[in-house]
Amino acid sequence: MNRQILWVLLILSLFFLSCSLDGDVVDPTIPDDTTIPYSPSPANGATDRESYQRLSWECTDAFSYTIYFDKATPPARIIKSNSVEKFTDVIAAGNGVTYYWQVVAKANDGTNKESPIWHFTTSFTASSEPGYVLTPYSVTTEEPTIVKMLFQVTDLENKGIDNLTINDFEISEDGYDVSVYESNMKITKRLNNPYLIKTVLMLDNSTSISDESNNLQLLKDAAKSFVDNMASQQEVALYKFSSDPEKLLDFTSDENGLKNAIDNIDRGFASTNLYGAVIEGVSQWEDKIEPDDIIQGSLVLFTDGNDTQGSKTLNEALDAIGEKSVYTVGLGSEIEPEILALIGNQGAYTITEMSELNQIFLQIQQDIDAYANSFYWMEYSSPKRGNNDHIIYLTAKDNPIYSVAEGTFSSAGFYDPNPGIYLNSSFLNQVGDSIFTLVAGGDPVELNANSYGGVKAPIYSWGTDPSLTINELDSLVNSNVKIYANSTASAGKVTINVDDTENGFSKTIEFNIRR
């Protein structure tokens, strides 16, 4: 090696050594206080990131970490708490979206050390590998040993995964596996639970669409086909818009009423208030996710142009959308696909002929239905006892990405019942009930059956009687029914049996019928 180069390297080495001995920081990425999380990955301000991201950081002398991750700053949504790992995997849905994140380290001395707020932006053409994203919403308990979790499964593009069964999941308590069959684990879907789909159908009837020879009629035909494919538990609100959005019919499940309103859509004005229509449409519902009440809404908007009115801005429209779901369909050469893609966070479609709209509307309706069916109500019988808190982890088998539905529950009050079938049991009424009163032609009683002490997942068979009508609410295992006394039933006592055909249990139920 050239002698001059060796002298230069030697001088530089002595210089950096001197700086280090004088107390100067050699590596500017390492802060003076390394108990504060530092060195984020992805780097702060990173762009062009994929939807699936591993967030990582460095930190010393920390006992655990709490991670905040959000589209707003400062980030308010906690995605993981009490974690001992210096990384976590997240789903950054959407193209060109900025996400903010922060790590709070709990130091060994009990103090909290907050990192700076970091951020990164997803690619405008982000691609995602297949995988299941599990999002937990609640964990509750019921007597005598039941743990329930409401969770959702989507893919990396936030599309609903609706075809999973109990055999596709694994569950653990405090790090120990729970047997699906020994715990009588079962999953129910939205049809057996309180759920409402609200859909706003917003149709552009400006002169550019209605001046075309047959486009307005084709638009009406496609909209009526959309109504024909409405799912159960779905309501649709109908709008038309040109210079202003106009509500034609509020949320309803009346298909004939919707189709009549669609037929009455007439020619609009030359001005197109696209952003105003978006703002009005997403204001019509509020999403709600609770175990006994789920409302999920979406806006489906069709247009053949851009915003020509200018009374509202794109930023105002995007702010109004927030976390709500929007689908856009654009026709022709006057649309701005990039803008419709920003508005249509759940799907943005472009078509060249109005005849394509019918198929696109059908695809959107299928996406809405799949998203609604991606909510799962899971319950199982826990072996835990005593007044203790426990951590539950639910994962999907063979998931190519790491995603866990996590929650906690207390086993306070859990008890071991005698083997058999229990109807409507509770902490205050541990043995449940076996005698019920009905009024002929009146309201039903709702019965929830649970088996304890069996070795198989129960399946129930309910007896019949001419005086009674039995509606099974859970078609998979028939554990939940409503029983009516027919209007012609005579006053007196009627008995039927409910059998757990898998475990050989049987219970007699008595009904006192009054007139």
Q: Quaternary state, please?
A: single chain
**What share of residues are in beta strands?**
35-45%
Q: What's the gyration radius in Å?
A: 29 Å
- Average pLDDT, rounded to a whole number, is 87
Helical element count?
8
The CATH topology assignment of the largest domain is Rossmann fold
Q: Superfamily at the CATH H level of the largest domain?
A: von Willebrand factor, type A domain
Q: What summary fits the major beta sheet?
A: 7 strands, mixed
Shape: flat
Structural class: alpha+beta
Terminal Cα span: 108 Å
Low-confidence stretches: 6-27
**Overall CATH architecture of the largest domain:** 3-Layer(aba) Sandwich
CATH class of the largest domain: Alpha Beta
Total number of β-strand segments? 32
Q: What's the domain count?
A: 5
Percentage of residues in helical conformation: 10-25%
Give short descriptive properties of this protein:
six-stranded mixed sheet; alpha+beta; 515 residues; 32 strands; Immunoglobulin-like; flat; 5 domains; seven-stranded mixed sheet; 8 helices
